[in-house]
Amino acid sequence: MRSRNNNRQNELTQRDEVSEKLLGGTLPFKTSSAMHPYQVIDLFNVCFEHILKSPNLQEHIQQVKGDLYRRDYLAAFDNDDKRFAYASRWTPSRALAYSSLFSSLEPVNKLLGDEHAKINVLCVGGGAGSELVGLGSVFSRLKEFHPNSDSCMNVEIVDIADWGKVTTNVASYMKSNWVHRNECLNSKFLCADILATNLELIGIADMDLVTLMFTTNELFSEKRKDTVKFLLALNQNCKPGSLLLIAESAGSFLNIKIGERQFPVQFLIDTILVGKPGDSGDNTGAWDIISQSESIWYRIMEREVTYELNLENMRFFYRLYRKKKRT
């Protein structure tokens, strides 16, 4: 019992240290609440072994880079060669960063570590697998403290490109190697335009966490009005207490013209979700911002991980919202 209490105290101490680092604008390379980064990278070394050895990999990567530079998102991911090239090149770095972020945000950490919870997560635009691996990393690590508990996590991924083979690949690895009972970690991929999808049919009212990681810019650039309707639908349909996490590359937000003035997309998002301050000083919207950073870094410690392709540092913006309770 004393050993367990000491372990718990060490965990709480590290969480406090993590909070200080978050306030300082830097995520830790590794945390006690997530799989070690080398374990995350091992997943990609195994799952993408044949891709990493392909003589055509660099050609496919360059094709994807060209399409993304032109903001032609549909063309960038229009076949399996491009999708696996992207996933092998950029997903590992993002998965490491998301693993650190999810474990460092106390409300998300607490949700994923609840030993009795049936956790439902919706990842919008998460087809490349970064969110799935990041979530799986935290859930699986915290599950080690109570491997036989009845907690489970169900991750629903919706993306307009057909990433089904990628998500199935990484999910199978996590189920086989990261958890004691593979039925406690589940994922489902839906190839669909989230802006044209009936949110009730994908169980939005049951979601404990919704993520839009590096997705909002793309949605607004493609269909501004439909994206606003989507955010309003989250206001209407997400359950009280649920979490919403939005992240984008720091400083990359589009500007939206309203009348004669231009506003950053994030200003519009906050206005839709949080609303404007009321007479009492409280926000009038459906959500509260409970954690945020305009610019936070995740830096790779290259000596601790080995991967065939370059692993990149990330600097990004995030907002974590909690749905208000009905009054």
What does this structure look like?
It is a single chain. This protein is of the alpha/beta class. It has a single domain (1-49, 97-323), classed as Vaccinia Virus protein VP39 (Rossmann fold), CATH 3.40.50. 44% of the residues lie in helices and 20% in strands. The chain is built from 13 helices and nine strands.
Helices and strands in order:
Blueprint: H1 2-23, H2 37-47, H3 49-52, H4 57-69, H5 73-76, H6 80-89, H7 91-104, H8 106-112, E1 118-124, H9 130-143, E2 152-159, H10 164-177, E3 185-191, E4 209-213, H11 216-222, H12 224-237, E5 243-249, E6 255-258, E7 261-264, H13 265-273, E8 287-298, E9 314-323
Parallel strand pairs: 1-2, 1-4, 2-3, 4-5
Antiparallel strand pairs: 5-9, 6-7, 8-9
Pfam family, one: Methyltransf_34
Protein name: Histidine-specific methyltransferase SAM-dependent domain-containing protein
GO biological process, one term: rRNA base methylation
Give average pLDDT, whole number.
90
Distance between the termini: 42 Å
Number of strands: 9
Shape annotation = globular
Query: What is the radius of gyration?
Result: 19 Å
Q: What number of domains?
A: 1
